[in-house]
Design brief:
The protein is an alpha/beta fold. It folds into 2 domains: 166 residues, Rossmann fold (3-Layer(aba) Sandwich), CATH 3.40.50.300; 74 residues, no CATH class. 39% of the residues lie in helices and 24% in strands. It contains 10 helices and 10 strands. The strands form 2 sheets. It has a 6-stranded mixed beta sheet with strand order 6-7-8-3-9-10, with helices on both faces. Strands 2-1-4-5 form a 4-stranded antiparallel beta sheet, with helices on one face. Strand 7, helix 7 and strand 8 form a beta-alpha-beta unit. The longest helix has 21 residues. It is globular, with a radius of gyration of 19 Å. The protein starts with a strand and ends in a 7-residue tail after the last helix. The model has no long low-confidence stretch (mean pLDDT 87).
Length: 256
């Protein structure tokens, strides 16, 4: 029987007079790529931001790998086991690719600030392990040869890969990707799809917000469509694509 990694129910969020989310819920099994789509303003990013601790929900229940968690702060969510990337890339521009991934890895370290200041043997050993793991992850996403380059010098597609490597460095239960294909050319999208497939084949779990409907439908195991903050449809890509409500609200308009 498959293991439920994320179970979210009855999530609502209001901003002043705007009801951004109304009773939204999703359930994701281990090893799935789960897509979240909808027109601009549908509530996708708001849902992501609630899920990952950037916004506090007005209501809702959250379980990660069977344990309740409360998304009230980004660092607590990372410790709980959710890592995310952003639509607008957020890397440390003056740090190398390797250093960026090492920063992500520090969520799982034990020596603490005192060990870092005193440069204790335990800290040095852990730093060496973090650097080795970060190098492995850069190789994994296909940019190992760029380890010593500052992140700002990397191509757009390679910066996206670096963000994913940094997310993986936290050993997450769930990786949440916010429009990873945005701004990519056709070749980069193919490479992104191959990387997401690779991550799934390693039994990791991905939640994907994406405007590229073709990418979502060809990649995801299950899809939820939001419209005006409400769940319009959920199911397999085939079920969602043939849902008259979805065709009318989103797919039939040509999407984005």
């Amino acid at each position: 029987m498959s293991e439920t990694i994320l179970k979210v129910a009855n999530v609502s969020k209001r901003f002043g007079g705007l009801q951004a989310l109304s009773d939204v819920g999703i359930t994701i099994q281990r090893g799935q790529v789960y897509g979240l789509i909808g027109p601009n303003g549908a509530g996708k990013t708001t849902f992501f931001n609630v899920l990952t601790g950037l916004y506090t929900p007005d209501s809702g229940t959250f379980e990660l790998a069977g344990k309740p968690y409360t998304p009230t702060a980004v660092h607590e969510v990372a410790k709980a086991g959710i890592a995310r990337t952003f639509q607008n890339i957020r890397l440390f521009a003056e740090m190398t690719a390797l250093e960026n991934v090492m920063v992500g890895r520090h969520v799982r370290t034990h020596s603490g600030i005192l060990g870092a200041v005193l440069r204790t043997p335990g800290f040095k050993k852990e730093e060496a392990e973090i650097a080795a793991r970060a190098k492995e992850l850069l190789d994994y996403v296909g940019i190992g040869k760029l380890a010593d380059y500052k992140s700002r010098t990397l191509s757009y597609g390679d910066q996206r890969r670096l963000e994913i490597a940094r997310a993986l460095a936290t050993d997450p239960q769930l990786i949440a990707l916010d429009e990873p294909a945005a701004g990519m050319n056709a070749t980069e999208k193919v490479q992104l799809r191959e990387l997401i497939d690779r991550i799934r084949n390693d039994n990791r779990t991905i939640l994907l917000i994406e405007h590229d409907v073709k990418l979502v439908m060809g990649l995801c195991d299950r899809v939820t469509v939001l419209d005006y903050g409400k769940q319009l449809s959920s199911g397999t890509p085939a079920e969602v694509q043939s849902d008259p409500k979805v065709i009318e609200a989103y797919l039939g308009t040509g999407g984005h």
